[in-house]
Amino acid sequence: MITCAVKVPETGEQFICSAIYAFNTAAERSHLWREIRETQSAHAHLNLPWVMLGDFNVTLSSSEHSRSLDYRTDQIGLRAFQEVLTDCSLVDFSYGEALFTLWNKRDEDPIGNKLDRALVNGDWLRHFPNSHAYFDAGGVLDHARCLIRLTGIHDYVSKPFRFFNFLAENEEFLPTIQETQSSTARLFHSRTALSSFHKKLKMLNPVLRTLNRTHYGDLPSRTKQAFEELCECQNRVLSDPTAENFSQAAEAYDKWNKLARIEEKFYRQKSCIRWLQAGDQNTSFFHRSVQARATQNTIRRLVTEQGEVLTAPSDFKREAVAHFQRFLQAHEQTQEISIESLQDL
């Protein structure tokens, strides 16, 4: 493992880069895992973006082996790799093109693996939100080469409406729903019932947006402000333990605790992680998951039916519209069938 600091002359941006070439066995790789943990501890106070890329010689999951059912996966090495990512708050960097990064070049026993990858920390996702990695063939080598772009084309698009579960716990939720639905005609069994129901749901869109923005807009900032107010009230209690200060501290705690629980539900739903049942209010973990998921779900290039590669979001929109127009407006050629031909069947 070789680690160095990188500075981009044009922008002045800085980040830490580590090049990896791991041993073949799990026992020998343990030295690398220890070195990664030590590097993370040594540079954590700098809050700099950190990227690690290279050949880790182990997969993160069984699905990263093209024939995982035929070959036993190194479960011990796999779990050790996963533990390093968790301990150092690293995520698998968004990548495009190739699913696997290594092929054995054996015609009689072809195998593909993903042993090469790029890992980044949360500071990287915050400083370079539009960055991404590509893996493509490297020519004479049996490993794919990794290319990382720090910037990308980013057009603002309006966000689609998404219902967050914590809205249903608000005391104004049910009265708002009832008021909106009572202003429209009742539903009956008819051919237009489904269309009418769809219109009712569409009417709730701006109403629920307003409800969410009024009570939970900029939720992280509200939670942080509530925590600071709680600390101020507690300091007043420590200086002057009166009944009034105790009451204010209790109210501040209830306010912060409510917002903190809502914030946890918000990040849990956005990150699509369901397995954390106890709820450690681990919002930093969920926030990293949200950032990583958003990076992975970003469409960075699109290949048309004619083989043209599109990279601009405006071209994505145009091609999507054209694709469905061709698909939905296509006219199938029909051949007239005579009665005689039907009788011959």
Automatic annotation (TrEMBL):
<protein>
    <submittedName>
        <fullName>BnaCnng11560D protein</fullName>
    </submittedName>
</protein>
<feature type="domain" description="Endonuclease/exonuclease/phosphatase">
    <location>
        <begin position="25"/>
        <end position="129"/>
    </location>
</feature>
<dbReference type="InterPro" id="IPR036691">
    <property type="entry name" value="Endo/exonu/phosph_ase_sf"/>
</dbReference>
<dbReference type="GO" id="GO:0003824">
    <property type="term" value="F:catalytic activity"/>
</dbReference>
<dbReference type="Pfam" id="PF03372">
    <property type="entry name" value="Exo_endo_phos"/>
</dbReference>
<dbReference type="InterPro" id="IPR005135">
    <property type="entry name" value="Endo/exonuclease/phosphatase"/>
</dbReference>
